Amino acid sequence: MIEILNRTELDRAKVTGALVADILQSVRSRSTVGTNLLDIDRWAQAMILEAGAQSCYVDYAPSFGRGPFGHYICTSVNDAVLHGLPHDYALADGDLLTLDIAVIKGGVAADSAISFIIGDSAPPESVAMISTTERALAAGIAVAGPGARIGDISHAIGSVLGEAGYPINTQFGGHGIGSTMHQDPHIANTGRPGRGFVLRPGLMLALEPWIMADTAELITDPDGWTLRSATGCRTAHSEHTIAITESGAEILTLPASAR
Length: 259
Ligand code: MG
Ligand code: MG
Description:
alpha+beta; Creatine Amidinohydrolase
């Protein structure tokens, strides 16, 4: 199903998007060497409940995960890239942490992810991976507007990832979003321009380029949720929720400093 949101729903989406961004930035600022992933989950839970919002994750039980997720935020460390189940793990200096969160407020969902390095010793290859996903996300957003097609977004994202030399996995990618977190259309992180669904005002999308340093193959952690690189290499992921407008695309999950 593909939803087209009306003006009231889009106004609500802005509120949800700002909440998601605020949670990510708050949790990021508090995540330091020694922070436990379960603390991060509790911080996210508190902010969601305080805002009168609902988690999209806690009861989420899709075919690719084991039962309800049971937590409020995805915490993926180093070789973990998607659906990271929070564990009893204390972050170490130089760890690459990806936080991914989706919530619903006022009947509208928003979804965003950031990757960053814990502590002071940032490995240059990890910094490069993170900035590549951020550049790919910006490239995808730049071509999103009325009349463009899903394939244009996929091509823009895939061009940045591919030119930087990273393999691209097409099992998981971006998606439509609206009254629920995951909707059609699927947005692969590589593709041919000029193909696919035509974008129009009111369509809301989550774009999410993610990469693994030297492989396109995922393995599932014994926890039944966390997806890791098959080679143990590091990974990165950047995601924004955007709304197609009459003139282009509006990013709904920008941090407060950029709004
Ligand atoms: Mg997400
Ligand atoms: Mg998403």
